[in-house]
Amino acid sequence: MSKLLTTIAILAALSLSLSCSRNGNSNNSTRVFTSLADFSGRKIGSESGAVFPQFLDRVIPNVEHRYYLTFDGIVTALRNGAVDAIALDMPVALFLAAHNKEFAVFPYVVSVDSYGFAIPKGSQLCVDANEVLEKFRETGVIDDAEMYWFAADDGKEREMPVLDYRPDYNGSAGTIRFGCENTLFPMSYASSEGKPLGFDIDIIHRIAYELNMKVEVTSMPFRDLLPALLSGRIDMVGGSLTITEERKALVDFIGPYFEGGTALVVKKSSLP
């Protein structure tokens, strides 16, 4: 487990403890979910196209899966009690719980996941971008981006960093048509003015900048990302996209650029 993932898990547990204390639930005698095994036979919501159900089935028997077309759909399902929990990538889960006082991140990670940017098989762009990513790892660029996008909420909207350190940059090497869902805070989302923001958006812009390329971001539901890529409508997709063997059979991956985990978000009232 990476240092960042360990930190995230600790923060999730700390967030849960603090939120229970704030809401007076620390002495709640009703114990519903105390271990992952307690979710056996329960309804867990996932967004269509996500790989969370297969990860859940590996560690929790008899999960009753519920699928929703949008991120807002699964959040509403949890809020209304249509599901007992929803499965999300850990950074997204932490952000959701931090901004919704009725939710909490269950303090046990379902799985450890590696995220990547998917690209058509055999593309030279994949080779070039992976070389850039390796440079970013060595120079601390990715670590710095994590610190910026995953920092505690200070009430101010984040802005995309300005990249101006290359005097020869003109974007003449082409445009990357990048697809992602735009509701996955803090990975890929839209600003109050509709501009693409987030950790993933930052990383892909940095890769393009190093390759003297531009980025054109197109938002779409998560379930449509890989079909759009395979049909040639876009050149690359990402936004908390887990690298799996099944996906690697269809596409190549740039990355991994981040190691995260599958987390469950529940109502605070269902925790001890």
Radius of gyration: 19 Å
* Count of β-strands: 12
Q: What would CATH call the architecture of the largest domain? A: 3-Layer(aba) Sandwich
| Anisotropy-based shape | globular
Given helix and strand content, the structural type is alpha/beta
**CATH top level assignment of the largest domain:** Alpha Beta
Which range best describes the helical content: under 10%, 10-25%, 25-40%, 40-55%, 55-70% or over 70%? 25-40%
**Biggest β-sheet strands, sense, barrel:** 6 strands, mixed
Order of helices and strands: HEHEHEHEEHHEEEEHEHEHE
CATH topology of the largest domain: D-Maltodextrin-Binding Protein, domain 2
Number of helical elements: 9
Query: What proportion strand?
Result: 15-25%
Structure description:
The longest helix has 20 residues. It is built from 9 helices and 12 strands. The strands form 3 sheets. Strands 1, 2, 3, 4, 5 and 12 form a 6-stranded mixed β-sheet that branches. The protein has a 3-stranded parallel β-sheet with strand order 10-6-11. A 3-stranded antiparallel β-sheet has the order 7-8-9. The chain is 35% helix and 24% strand. The N terminus is likely disordered. The two termini are 27 Å apart. With 272 residues, it is an alpha/beta fold. It has 2 domains: 120 residues, D-Maltodextrin-Binding Protein, domain 2, CATH 3.40.190.10; 146 residues, Periplasmic binding protein-like II (D-Maltodextrin-Binding Protein, domain 2), CATH 3.40.190.
